[in-house]
Specification:
single chain; 513 residues; alpha+beta; 8-stranded mixed sheet; two-stranded antiparallel ribbon; 14 helices; 12 strands; 36% helix
């Protein structure tokens, strides 16, 4: 009969053998394999590599079961090699350099302080991830002439994630994009094709006079949806990639589709309606939409410039400055659930896909030569301008989403509200947050880059195919004529020609008389 200790051991062994994972490996076998490996190799630093050894043995067993090894973890050596460029330089006595006053004024805000603030509400990344992200942003500043740089957020992907940096170049030092040079080349090629077409002889076949509606021009850099430039990277330590500027067509289509990101910028977007671009363009469009809807600041922190207001009396205001006379709001006012003390400081994107409306059909008077084209001009110009909420509008005026308030405002601490931090969460874009305390505030987004929808997303149906042409007697089929019918038709045609010749001769005789 087994003793009490033997029974306890047998029960524990039985329990360890019953704990299995999805691949059928139980805990008892795994612990036995790890202990056997340690006793065979007897490494001196087993305490430091115990976790890595356990994962290695588990991967080997999975590969034996026909599964692919897990690639979701990195050893300490691999991680160190990837993050090594972020820690290199500046600490050695020999390579140390004196820091000037200009270098002290860094365009990078205190990311770690913002991380601490968001941590009060359980929002954000781990401290280690924030630290390496700060070093990656510093590396971006060292390699580009930037005036401002901040951590915009992290977009989660299926295969890889995106760390997003929002930057603003120093005036006159912005780098020329490759897409701009490509657009200029395409325009030159189109002009050459038009010149060649004009020099050729006219085609006998009829030409189609239909012209597609001209595309809506994108906004210039530094204005509207292209006010800021964005860089992304899959992991801190890897190279930053500059995202292209966004076009109205991309924003318009992005509102109609729902696609999760994969982490590959060059991956094509397969959707209906077709998206004009790759995942890099789709990512840039979603960043513009999220920024326009979730970037907020305490009321009166920004104000409009009086000089610009005098110059631009007509039209929407699109510029603001930091209010030098701003007085911090009490925590009680910032935590008002109505949101009257928080305002949007990013322009609203119109249904057209731009922040400022433009009529794509409008042409200059030189393009219209005759009166008919002038009338056509009047018809084309009759397009009602689109309007939206103005800049620095309180978030209390945002539309309610299916009986759900668009924002949720809370204090980080209800016990000590005097020194607490106020947090604002967007219910329209899950993952968008903002905090405010005294004169400090910041916005952060961590999510999948998708907008809230009450019901499951349903892709639109493809429209039915249109008819090739309108049916009519001029294009209807008919039987071929017989030989007798052809002979009669020729005789009738010859008779008509003879009558015309005789009539012409009689007229000539009358003129001679």
């Amino acid at each position: 009969m087994p003793t009490g200790s033997e029974k306890v051991f047998a029960d524990a062994q039985s329990y360890l053998k019953t704990v299995n994972n999805q691949q059928g490996i139980n805990l008892y076998e795994h612990i036995s394999s790890v202990i056997t490996k340690i006793l065979e190799e007897r490494p001196s630093h087993i305490v430091d590599i115990f976790e890595d050894l356990s994962l290695t043995i588990k991967d080997q067993k999975l590969s034996n079961y026909g599964k692919q090894p897990q690639d979701l973890w990195l050893t300490q050596a691999k991680l160190s090699e990837e993050l090594k460029p972020l820690f290199s330089g500046g600490d050695d006595d020999e390579g140390a350099m004196e820091v000037t006053d200009e270098e002290m004024g860094s365009p990078l805000p205190n990311v770690m302080e913002n991380a601490y603030m968001f941590e009060q509400a359980g929002i954000g990344l781990s401290r280690e991830e924030y630290f390496v992200t700060t070093l990656a942003l510093k590396q971006l500043i060292d390699t580009h002439p930037l005036q401002k740089c901040r951590f915009w957020g992290k977009i989660l992907g299926i295969e890889k994630n995106y760390y997003v940096a929002e930057v603003e170049y120093r005036e006159g030092e912005e780098e020329e994009e490759e897409e701009e040079a490509q657009e200029e080349v395409e325009k030159e090629e189109e002009e050459k094709d038009d010149d060649n077409a004009d020099g050729e002889e006219e085609d006998v076949l009829p030409k189609n006079d239909w012209k597609p509606q001209p595309p809506v021009p994108k906004e210039d850099k530094g204005s509207g949806a292209n006010k800021y430039t964005y860089f992304v990277t899959n992991n801190p330590g890897q190279a930053w990639t500059k995202l292209p500027t966004v076009t109205p067509a991309q924003i318009h289509i992005a509102r109609k589709i729902k696609k999760y990101f994969t982490g590959q910028l060059d991956k094509p977007i397969v959707s209906y309606p077709p998206f004009p671009g790759t995942e890099a363009n789709y990512l840039r469009a979603q960043i513009a939409r999220i920024s326009a809807g979730t970037q907020i600041s305490p009321a009166n922190f920004y104000s409009f410039d009086e000089e610009e207001e005098a110059e631009e009396d007509d039209g929407a205001k699109d510029h603001y400055i930091e209010n030098a006379e701003f007085e911090p709001l009490p925590i009680k006012d910032l935590a008002d659930p109505r949101g009257v003390n928080w305002t949007h400081h990013v322009q609203y994107i119109l249904p057209q896909g731009r922040c400022s409306f433009v009529n794509p059909n409008q042409k200059s008077e030189e393009d219209f030569e005759d009166e008919e084209e002038e009338e056509e001009k009047e018809e084309m110009d009759e397009l009602e301008p689109e309007t939206g909420p103005s800049l620095l509008t309180p978030i209390s005026e945002d539309a309610i989403i299916d009986n759900l308030p668009p924002w949720t405002i809370k204090c980080a601490s209800e016990r000590v509200p005097f020194y607490a931090v106020v947090f604002v969460r967007s219910n329209l874009w899950p993952g968008a947050y903002a905090y405010g305390q005294d004169r400090k505030f910041e916005n952060l987004y961590i999510g999948f880059g998708q907008k809230y929808e009450k019901e499951n997303f349903t892709p639109p149906q493809i429209p039915a195919g249109s008819a090739e042409y309108a049916l009519g007697p001029e294009i209807g089929e008919m039987d071929d004529p017989t030989a007798e019918q052809e002979a009669e038709a020729k005789a009738a045609a010859a008779g008509e020609e003879g009558a015309e010749d005789e009539g012409g001769e009689e007229e000539e005789d009358e003129e001679d008389d």
